[in-house]
Amino acid sequence: MAAPWPPCRRLPHWTVCILAAGYALVQVHDCLSRFLAEPVSSHRDTVFMDQLPTPAITLCNPILDGPTVYYIVPEDDNMGMSDLPWHEFGNETIPYLLDVAAVGAEEALDDCRLRGQPCSTVGAWSRRLHSSVGDCFTFTPNTSEPIQLGDGYEVTFLLPSNVYGEIKEKQIMHALIGEKFIDLTHELGNMRLSVFVHPADEPFSSLPWIQPQEPLYVRSGERAEVRVTLEDIERVSQRHLPCESRPGYSSARCSLLCHAEAASAATGLDCRVTDMPTTAALCGNFANYSAVQRAFTTAAGAQAAMGECRQRCPRPCRQRRYLAALGSSLGQDETRLRQFSMRIYYGGEPVQLYRELWSYGASALVGEAGGVLGLMLGLSVLSVFEAVSQLVESIVQRVSARVGSA
Ligand SMILES: *[C@@H]1O[C@H](CO)[C@@H](O)[C@H](O)[C@H]1NC(C)=O
Ligand SMILES: *[C@@H]1O[C@H](CO)[C@@H](O)[C@H](O)[C@H]1NC(C)=O
Ligand SMILES: *[C@@H]1O[C@H](CO)[C@@H](O)[C@H](O)[C@H]1NC(C)=O
C-alpha cells in the first residue's frame, strides 16, 4: 500500500484534510462555473488613423414613402396605391411609378464628388424604393482606396423643376405625374432628405431589425456638415451569443434573405417588394404586393421570423460600423429650396475601437483553481507528479516481485 498522504495520518489530521478537501472542491466548482459562464469585458479606445476606409452613402427622398405613394396616382389624387395601374403594368408598376413620379440619380445627383473626383468615375449609384424611408439612392464606391481625415463626399441632391413643379406661396410641392402636376403633402420648406452612411460591402436596409441605424436629416436649402466616425468592433464568440467569423459574412445580407424567405413562407407568394434585394420578380398586383410588403416591412409581420433569423444570422465577430452626426449647418437658403447640399467626411476622432476579451479565461481558471488546491491540499505540479510516479513505481515493484516469485 502506498503511504497515506503525510499530513493525513491521524484522526484530527483527517478531519482537517476532509474539511480542506471539501472547501477546495467548492472553490474549484465555483471557478469552473465562472469559467463556463464565459464572462466578457469590453474595452474601448479611440485611435487616430489617417487612412480610412471609404463608406457608402444612401440618400432617401421621402417623396415616395408609404404615406405619399398613397397620393401619387395618375388622374385622381385621392386614390391609393391600390389604384396604381397594376392591370396595365403588372410587376413593372413600381418601376413605372419611379419613372414618372420621381427623378433618377442622373438628374438628382449630378453634383457629387468623392475625394474631389466626380462620383460617376469612382463608383455607381443604385436606386431602391424603401417603404419606410422613401426613394433611396445608394452610392457604392468601387475603389478600395482609403480616404483621409477631413476628406469625403460633397453631394448636392437636386429636385429638378421639370419633375417638381413650381413652388407656390404655400410652398406645397407639386410633382409631375405623367402629363400633369399634382400636389404632394410635403411642404417644400420642411422637406428633409434622410442620409445614411454605411459599409460599402453590405446591402442597405432601413428596417431596424435588419440593420439598426438612424438616419440624419438634411433640410432643403441647407448646406449640412455630416461628420463620420468609424467603429471597429471585435467580438468573442460565446456559447449563448455566438459570432460569425467567416470572411465576407454580413449579418444584414443574411437577415435580409432570412426575412425575405420568411415573408414568402408566411404569405405563400414567391414574389418580392422593392425593399428586398432578392432575385424574385416584383409582385405583379396590389393584393400580392401589399401582403408581402406587410409581412416583410412591418415589425408585426416580421415578428414570427425574428428569433429564427437572429439565430441563423449571428453578429459578425469583426464588424465595421459608421456613426454619422450632423455638424454645423450653414443655415437654410430660401432661394435654394430645391437643393440638399452636404459634406460627408471623417471628423476629429475618426476611429473608435471596441474589443471584447474573455475576463475569466482558461489561464485564469488554471491559476485560481490551482492556487486553491495548492493552498488547501498542498498540491503542486511537482507533488502531483511525485505522487503519480510513486504509484507507478510501487506498481512496477509489485509486478516484478510477483514475476520474481513465480
Ligand atoms: C468605377 O465605376 C465607374 C462607373 O461604373 C467606372 O467608370 C470606373 O471605371 C470604375 N473604376 C474602377 C477603378 O473600377
Ligand atoms: C399573385 O396573385 C394572383 C391572384 O391574385 C396569382 O394568380 C399570382 O400567381 C400571385 N403570385 C405572384 C407571385 O404574383
Ligand atoms: C416581371 O415578371 C417577369 C416574368 O415573371 C420577369 O421576367 C421580370 O423580371 C419581372 N419584372 C420585375 C421588375 O420584377
From TrEMBL:
One of its GO terms (cellular component) is plasma membrane. One of its GO terms (molecular function) is ligand-gated sodium channel activity. It comes from the Eukaryota. The keyword Transmembrane helix applies. Keywords: Ion channel, Ion transport, Membrane, Signal, Sodium, Sodium channel, Sodium transport, Transmembrane, Transmembrane helix, Transport. Pfam families: ASC. The keyword Ribonucleoprotein does not apply. Residues 1-28 form the signal peptide. It is a multi-pass membrane protein. It is found in: Membrane. Belongs to the amiloride-sensitive sodium channel (TC 1.A.6) family. This is Acid-sensing ion channel 4-A. It comes from Amphibalanus amphitrite.
